[in-house]
Amino acid sequence: MAERRRAARHNHQSLAQQIVALALDRGLKAGEHMPEQAIAEACGVSRTPIRAAFKILEKNNILIWKEEQGYFLARSAQEGLSDASIAAADRDQGLFTRILADRAARRIADVQSVSALARRYSASRVEVLNALKILSRDGIVSQLPGSAWAFQPLLDTPPAIAESFAFRLTLEPQAILTPGFALDPTRASALRAQMRAFQLLPDGRLTAAGFQRLDIDFHVMIAEGSANRFVQGALLAHHRLRRMAQKEAAPPPFRQRQAMEEHLDILDSLERTQLELAADQMVLHLRRSGIRRPETAGRGMSALLRGAQPAPARKGPAS
Amino acid sequence: MTRPPVIALFPEASFGAALNCVGIARELAARGAEPVFLCHPGFTGVFAEYGFREYHLQPEAGAVQARGEAYWQNFVNTHLAHFDLTPQAQLEAYVAPTWEAIVDTVIAVDDSLEALLAQIQPDAILLDNVIMFPAILRCGRPWARVVSCAETEIPDALVPPYLSGLGPDDVAGRALWEKAASAALRPAHHRYNAFRRARGLRPLPQGQFLECSDWLNLLLAPSAVRYRRAETLPADRFTFLEGCVRDEVPFDPPALPANEGPLVYMSFGSLGAIDTDQIRRMIAVFATIPARFFVNVGGFLDEYREVPDNVFLGSWFPQPSVVAQSALFIHHGGNNSFCEALFHGVPSLVMAYCWDGHDNARRVQDTGTGRSMHRSDWSPDGLRATIDALLKDRDLRDRLAAISAQMKADPGVVRAADAVLSRLGAR
Fold it and tell me: What residues does the Erythromycin biosynthesis protein CIII-like C-terminal domain cover (chain B) (predicted)?
């Protein structure tokens, strides 16, 4: 019973995120009416979960409830709606989000027992198990024989990020080139508008979270367009892992806007059905994005190039 | 219609120099010039991310070895112990081999640099390095020297010797240092001068690897920490900057499980991040202090486990944006870090590893802008007490606020760009 409640809560939160994405996609303005029925149809769910999701959004000041009129949007994209959606998720400190955040911050070890987690979070074993099951759906954690759970490597270290780019370089162009690729035109048009709006934001508004959301949304759309179910599944699972990873520091504003321009160029080619060109542009985009934070040489490092000099005994710390 | 002046910026392969130059390049671009970057292998893409064209140096075949895991392990085994030594003991163990490597770099890339300069045909070159590349002098274009190390890099009778970590009044220490440095650096210097001669350039006096420019020299020493000099540097050739701090993307500190107290930022640069044992020791102390600690651990995030609830580790931070929000900055004395702390009015706790970190460790004490400690020879109580004292020192904070206001009123990146363009007559 408790598990169902928690899973439902997780679903309502996901639905709330989906509603925000819908508002962004449709370019809705502050004060616009959010009709339950229309939103439920757009999200492909009944009105009951929509009401629960609306309540979450109201609690986070994203929607306003007016007696006998219904729900209205409190802010538009220009008024920070994209950032607000992420803040809403962060603030809802469900146990699984706390575990995930602590895992990303290296506060908890790679292998954990349910009882150790229950102690850390002052939670019951059932609550911990439910949280672990939610995380296991996205491949963040897997159950070992016995009562231990093992966390999978996260996408936040330089080697993991490099592997991620290599994986995507293999699959994302293929997702486009597989016969039968089809873009969702409504989604593409909405994302185009959002990416253009992003490019026009002043430097101070180009946040890591906003950039990451649009970037992943774009690549998810590409994955969803693939006609090969296995390519699609592998890419969607990988993008879920990217969303879960610790937020990386944003690249400089120039690169953020350039990356959006590259997305737009790929979209142009896809809409003209120049799929080979789009696949090549995807390679270019991923290669550029993969060149980040190189290792340094210079005064500090250059002595290495000379090879080893015998080191004197290390001075012991005085602790 | 005349074309915009093309300024080739050539920073050494370190983030400090690279990002200083990015700050200056942005201001040059804002004034209609066309800044481009000459780029060491390993820095590919850093400048392109900021929107600048890059030209890549191609070292001679075999000159660069791959930096795999074995490379870093070699580094750890070889040099970590050296960073615990005194500046004088580092002369033999670290400084001399580093100069040898720097000379190697010059020899390896000079042909490539000459070819690139012929291709770019810059109107001026900004060299942010500690050594001259003969190709720069041979191309005959105006060039500026950017001194992004401590001011000690430009010698004077009243300024302590470069890298010595000495105070200005230590006459006996100076004599000993100069004798030891002369002996330690002689082989590298001799080899470098031989290369200069082979390229048709005059040799440099003992101990010098880079001459001052006849055109423009930019020193990144803020007035609050400048030395008195026996010989004033002529204003027509030397421009002092109030640091060279760039704007960065905003940083929104994530909420921590223990989210109380002031923000303390710690970064020992790419080099210092390698000493994960030392950083782990420090993190154990941080766990006992009621503050939030943001720690740059470079590419070594996976080396850490059971991070305390008041500590956040990151592989990279937009440093100026983090420092601006900090109550204390613990760093290795890199000149860039020291200048960023002063620019934002933040006290420094300097734990020097090597090079001019020692000079800044001394200077931070002498100028009352923070404190310095040995990087590894400390007790948990001693480190805790030092951090606590720095966080509580209101007088220090007031002094730094005044320094910050002075620096922000005269941003170094703006002054540098103006100095370059006014000399080119392009403003």
Answer: 302-412
Instruction: Tell me, yes or no, if the two domains A2-91 and A95-151 fold the same way.
Output: yes
Please judge whether A317 and B254 are an interchain contact, meaning their C-beta atoms are less than 8 angstroms apart: no
CATH number at residue B381: 3.40.50.2000
Separation between Cα atoms, residue B143 and residue A269, nearest integer Å: 45
| From A6-10, A14-18, A94-98, the region with the lowest mean pLDDT | A6-10
Q: In this complex, how many residue pairs, one in chain A and one in chain B, have their CB atoms less than 8 Å apart?
A: 192
Order of strands across the sheet that contains B238-240: B53-56, B34-39, B6-11, B124-128, B143-147, B216-219, B238-240
Q: How confident is the model at residue A162 (pLDDT cuts 50, 70, 90)?
A: confident
Q: What is the pLDDT of residues A195-233, one digit of tens each?
A: 999 999 988 888 787 888 899 999 999 999 999 999 999
Alpha carbon of A1: minimum distance to chain B alpha carbons (Å): 29
**B251 in a structural domain:** no
Phi, psi of B38 (to 5 degrees): -95, 130
What was the pLDDT predicted at A317? 29
Rg of chain B (C-alpha set): 21
For chain A, the domains span 2-91, 95-151, 158-290
Q: Is residue A295 predicted with pLDDT exceeding 80?
A: no
Structure tokens at B416: 């540098």
pTM over 0.90? The answer is no
Report residue B308's pLDDT band, with 50, 70 and 90 as the boundaries.
very high
Cα distance between residue B111 and residue A318, in whole Å: 49
Checking if the pLDDT of B169 tops 50, the result is: yes
Residue A134 — pLDDT band, cuts 50, 70, 90? Answer: confident
B260 touches A at CB < 8 Å: no
Q: What angle do CA B289, B295, B300 make, to 5 degrees?
A: 130
Q: Is the pLDDT at B124 greater than 90, yes or no?
A: yes
Nearest-by-CA chain A residue for B271? A300
Using the structure block, give the residue that is written with the tokens 């760009």. Answer: B417
The CATH number of the domain covering residues in A2-91 = 1.10.10.10
Tell how far CA B34 is from the center of its chain: 25
- Second-level CATH architecture of A95-151: Orthogonal Bundle (1.10)
* pLDDT higher at B257 or A160: B257
| Cβ(B134)–Cβ(B127) below 8 Å | no
DSSP assignment of A259-319 equals: HHHHHHHHHHHHHTT-HHHHHHHHHHHHHHHH--SPPP-HHHHHGGGG---PPPPPPPP--
Is domain A158-290 in CATH 3.40.50.980, yes or no? no
| Pairwise CB contact (< 8 Å): B306 & A311 | no
Q: Which residues of B touch A304 (CB under 8 A)?
A: 71, 74-75, 78-79, 101
Task: Please report the ipTM that was assigned to this predicted complex.
Answer: 0.72
CB-based contacts of B280, cutoff 8 Å, min separation 6 = B304
Which one of A201, A211, A296 makes the best mutation probe of the B interface by having the most chain B beta carbons within 10 Å? A296
**Helices A36-43/A2-25 angle, 10° precision:** 100
Q: Half-sphere exposure (CA, 13 Å, Cβ side) for B339?
A: 30
| CA distances (Å), origin B287, targets B86, B258, B294, B379, B384 | 29, 10, 12, 15, 10
Under an 8 A CB cutoff, do A106 and B313 touch? yes
Give the closest of B84, B302, B304 to A315, CB-based: B84
